[in-house]
Amino acid sequence: xxxxxxxxxxxxxxxxxxxxxxxxxxxxxxxxxxxxxxxxxxxxxxxxxxxxxxxxxxxxxxxxxxxxxxxxxxxxxxxxxxxxxxxxxxxxxxxxxxxxxxxxxxxxxxxxxxxxxxxxxxxxxxxxxxxxxxxxxxxxxxxxxxxxxxxxxxxxxxxxxxxxxxxxxxxxxxxxxxxxxxxxxxxxxxxxxxxxxxxxxxxxxxxxxxxxxxxxxxxxxxxxxxxxxxxxxxxxxxxxxxxxxxxxxxxxxxxxxxxxxxxxxxxxxxxxxxxxxxxxxxxxxxxxxxxxxxxxxxxxxxxxxxxxxxxxxxxxxxxxxxxxxxxxxxxxxxxxxxxxxxxxxxxxxxxxxxxxxxxxxxxxxxxxxxxxxxxxxxxxxxxxxxxxxxxxxxxxxxxxxxxxxxxxxxxxxxxxxxxxxxxxxxxxxxxxxxxxx
Length: 437
Description:
Elements: H1 2-12, H2 21-49, H3 53-69, E1 78-79, H4 85-95, H5 97-117, H6 120-123, H7 128-151, H8 162-171, H9 178-193, H10 205-219, H11 229-233, H12 255-280, H13 286-302, E2 309-310, H14 312-320, H15 327-342, H16 352-366, H17 369-378, H18 381-396, H19 399-436
Helix pairs in contact: 2-3, 2-4, 2-10, 2-14, 2-15, 2-16, 3-13, 3-15, 4-5, 5-12, 5-13, 7-8, 7-16, 7-17, 7-18, 7-19, 9-10, 9-16, 12-13, 12-14, 18-19
């Protein structure tokens, strides 16, 4: 029996074979660090999605632990993700928060099926132009959605579509709050440049930004009127998430949004795993990784969380802090759950502007704007067209339409390209024959 258990561990969790005390301490340090980084991000992403901030912590704690436990990539860190915000916000706007739990369960089932039938091998072949297009499009939607909190605008009414929400923001620009803008700009500066200070290099920049912003709002009289998390969403209290059986009321209308979630989770997860492979010279198992994400999302739904995915930024943080195995992700989840059990009320005083600053910087980083500019300079017009069409449709419709249109355009372009090459070869052969005769 012991031999069989060792065989299973070696096959499904090779990073735990020969685990040592030194390896554990590496994972412990990396896991706690990533957990601290994930705390303000999870709060901000929950707010941006349209659910109570504590739901973001439930998601990171539960899904992060389960996905790492069953992962096919030993370094991937799972939790709420910026790329998920637009699609989840649209689903909540259309169906409501209670139906999101049912849709999450369906999406989790899709992910498990994707893993079992080997869909991951197909997803990783999505062209670069399409990936760059939809990530840049998602970033634009996130940044636009955070302007209201960042500028301290009032009287905003939420709408279903991007253009309507952006127009609402423009119409209320004159309701801005100078103290809120000051906190937002200061938070951005700390996130971007805080780690360049010698003695602060190892302190998570987002934690620094949130701490400084919170202290200023609490103790600086001239910063009155800056809204905090508890003022906007009610107080967060101590307590671990508990199992809640979602009210499953199935409707055929849930299939498409669930598929959208599963598709995006699969893309983000496998991209994250490939980045981790490049950083660590390892190789992930795409099928096992998708099944693990399915299990993580099942757990998230049953504990009142939202859909989650492996996240490149947090995974990169884990690798940079010498993570050695999947235990880093498990400790990251445990760190967040420990915060919920012991320190959760500390989050109540966090200014919304600081959380919006975190999301804006995160969106800029995930946009891969440098790669987009490099790709446009490097490739031909047809590449640019696929990228731009995917980007524009992702912003003004949704991710599925953007990616689908991008793939269709890419396939058509390839056919035209191959026909042009074949026509040129035929012409060259014809000219050669004429020359010989």
